[in-house]
Amino acid sequence: MSEPPGVTVTFAEAPKTDDPPQPLAAQRVLPLRRPGRWIVTAVVLIVVAQFVHGLVTNPFYQWDRWSYWFLRPTILDGLLITLQVTVYSAVLGLAGGVVLALARLSKSPVLRAVSWTYVWVLRSIPLIVVLIFLYNFSALYQTLSVGIPFGPAFFSFDESRLATDMVVAVVGLSLNEAAYAAEVVRGGILSVDQGQHEAAAALGLPKGYQFRRIVFPQALRSIVPNYVNQLIGLIKGTSLVFYVSLLDLFGSAQTMGSTYPGDIVPLLLVVTVWYLILTSVVSVIQFYVERHYARGATRGLPPTPLQKLRTRLTDLGARVRREAAV
Amino acid sequence: MSAKTREARADVEAATVEVHGVHKWYGTHRVLDGIDLTVRPGEVTVVLGPSGSGKSTLLRIINHLEKPEIGYVSVNGELIGVKRQGERLKELSERAILVQRGRIGFVFQNFNLFPHLTVLDNVAAAPIATGRLGRSEAQELARELLGRVGLADKTGAYPRQLSGGQQQRVAIARAIALRPGVILFDEPTSALDPELVGEVLAVIKDLATSGTTLVIVTHEIGFAREVADRVVFIDGGRIVEQGPPAEVLGTPRHERTRDFLSKVL
């Protein structure tokens, strides 16, 4: 990368040549050869090849059992639960996060304090504790009722009937997610230039419109990458709902593993591949969402992978033709 | 000029702006120290003064982006940001203030265009959001206004794809889309490269001749001499002198005005 010390040639010491300086023709500069880089590349390739070879040939992984389990209905049912829990919690969590962020940025000291305390508490408690606590919630509060605070109730629910395993899981994850989302959203809103708020106010745009159409879309540019990061954590975090007796992807594999102990490794690999697929899909969606909200922020939009491939191919074609011509 | 544009210009009623005994301070720092100013309908007023003299604060108080500590502002006799209750002044609701701001155009030094909206949507946003016009009417108006500032071919562009001068012209079109009776300019050419200043001043000059009331904070003395009906010189939060440009710029009566002019000319 950098030159070794001690070989810097200063202008004064430069060896004198007998040739008088000739005016050079305008030409392409020969690129610097980098042998070190080639050696490192080769070593890395060998290590990767070894790893892949081991992954494929090591009988310990039992790939035949993997393909047996990969699309089993129990696994797919679990996958569906994972997806449901993720989607509900992501939406509710983001909505809660927006509300908490707005409360935190409001002028009311009470709202600010409540929002801060919520984030503080929920970020401090491990998710598994929140889930198990909610699971036992019906023991603490048998009924939930709607009415005048500290006064009579208009109607009430039987908590144990309302709180299905799915509800407990989604509520727990959303509560946790909202605390993190609040900080992500707040950061996004703060990243919008003060001049934008002033311009919107000076034009007399209604308050709701200012937020929905001017501030929030610009905030999304920094919210999206951070929230997707959060979302990927959430996808994996859903595996904890197994402990509130909801059979998600991980839960199903775990159950099958205790019934077929010999298949534990292939089952874990099934789970791994499914989580890989889920996070990959999210990453692809992230790319296009970010591209959408980049409108106007950069002079041109970043190219999609397809566009990139196309320009690469054209470049390659041009280069081959050029080399052939030389 | 199309019949529609003429109509759009015709129903703009130039406003009177009155500033009554306005004081503004931040902590112990006095920014404005008793400003009284009347701007007659259709008049072009240029506000001059050294930096930190309170010029920008005065403009921002006129459209209530800042609240005066003492004193009040009225546009066409209507109090801005406050209402009268007996002998007391009471703060207006935010919603009511936003409605009032629709009658006062404001052009920022840094343009503050909405970067995620196209040029057309920047101009059409306010008429749509305030419910004055439907989407297609607002876009038609926006096209006409962009034509008027010489940017008819840029409707689909995003602000960051434009030069500073073009952005400021879009910002002016955006400010006049609500047909305000008065437009406030806060150093509209200070953020521009020198060769782009002229195109923005030309648009402001065009507005000046159309009869809208303009209040302009600027350092362009030549422009003030040419366009202003009145020049107001502010220093230390007070109006030092005011009058026709020939008087204030040509034969200033106060030492401080002379001092300032000798530095900027």
From TrEMBL, chain A:
<keyword id="KW-1133">Transmembrane helix</keyword>
<dbReference type="InterPro" id="IPR010065">
    <property type="entry name" value="AA_ABC_transptr_permease_3TM"/>
</dbReference>
<feature type="transmembrane region" description="Helical">
    <location>
        <begin position="115"/>
        <end position="134"/>
    </location>
</feature>
<keyword id="KW-0472">Membrane</keyword>
<dbReference type="GO" id="GO:0022857">
    <property type="term" value="F:transmembrane transporter activity"/>
</dbReference>
<keyword id="KW-0029">Amino-acid transport</keyword>
<feature type="domain" description="ABC transmembrane type-1">
    <location>
        <begin position="79"/>
        <end position="286"/>
    </location>
</feature>
<feature type="transmembrane region" description="Helical">
    <location>
        <begin position="81"/>
        <end position="103"/>
    </location>
</feature>
<feature type="transmembrane region" description="Helical">
    <location>
        <begin position="38"/>
        <end position="61"/>
    </location>
</feature>
<dbReference type="GO" id="GO:0043190">
    <property type="term" value="C:ATP-binding cassette (ABC) transporter complex"/>
</dbReference>
<keyword id="KW-0812">Transmembrane</keyword>
<dbReference type="InterPro" id="IPR043429">
    <property type="entry name" value="ArtM/GltK/GlnP/TcyL/YhdX-like"/>
</dbReference>
<protein>
    <submittedName>
        <fullName>Amino acid ABC transporter, permease protein</fullName>
    </submittedName>
</protein>
<keyword id="KW-0813">Transport</keyword>
<keyword id="KW-1003">Cell membrane</keyword>
<dbReference type="InterPro" id="IPR000515">
    <property type="entry name" value="MetI-like"/>
</dbReference>
<dbReference type="InterPro" id="IPR035906">
    <property type="entry name" value="MetI-like_sf"/>
</dbReference>
<feature type="region of interest" description="Disordered">
    <location>
        <begin position="1"/>
        <end position="22"/>
    </location>
</feature>
<comment type="similarity">
    <text>Belongs to the binding-protein-dependent transport system permease family.</text>
</comment>
<feature type="transmembrane region" description="Helical">
    <location>
        <begin position="264"/>
        <end position="289"/>
    </location>
</feature>
<dbReference type="Pfam" id="PF00528">
    <property type="entry name" value="BPD_transp_1"/>
</dbReference>
<dbReference type="GO" id="GO:0006865">
    <property type="term" value="P:amino acid transport"/>
</dbReference>
From TrEMBL, chain B:
<keyword id="KW-1003">Cell membrane</keyword>
<dbReference type="Pfam" id="PF00005">
    <property type="entry name" value="ABC_tran"/>
</dbReference>
<dbReference type="InterPro" id="IPR017871">
    <property type="entry name" value="ABC_transporter-like_CS"/>
</dbReference>
<dbReference type="InterPro" id="IPR030679">
    <property type="entry name" value="ABC_ATPase_HisP-typ"/>
</dbReference>
<keyword id="KW-0813">Transport</keyword>
<keyword id="KW-0547">Nucleotide-binding</keyword>
<feature type="domain" description="ABC transporter">
    <location>
        <begin position="17"/>
        <end position="261"/>
    </location>
</feature>
<dbReference type="InterPro" id="IPR003593">
    <property type="entry name" value="AAA+_ATPase"/>
</dbReference>
<dbReference type="GO" id="GO:0005886">
    <property type="term" value="C:plasma membrane"/>
</dbReference>
<keyword id="KW-0472">Membrane</keyword>
<dbReference type="GO" id="GO:0005524">
    <property type="term" value="F:ATP binding"/>
</dbReference>
<dbReference type="GO" id="GO:0016887">
    <property type="term" value="F:ATP hydrolysis activity"/>
</dbReference>
<dbReference type="InterPro" id="IPR050086">
    <property type="entry name" value="MetN_ABC_transporter-like"/>
</dbReference>
<dbReference type="InterPro" id="IPR003439">
    <property type="entry name" value="ABC_transporter-like_ATP-bd"/>
</dbReference>
<keyword id="KW-0067">ATP-binding</keyword>
<protein>
    <submittedName>
        <fullName>Arginine ABC transporter ATP-binding protein</fullName>
    </submittedName>
</protein>
<dbReference type="GO" id="GO:0015424">
    <property type="term" value="F:ABC-type amino acid transporter activity"/>
</dbReference>
<dbReference type="InterPro" id="IPR027417">
    <property type="entry name" value="P-loop_NTPase"/>
</dbReference>
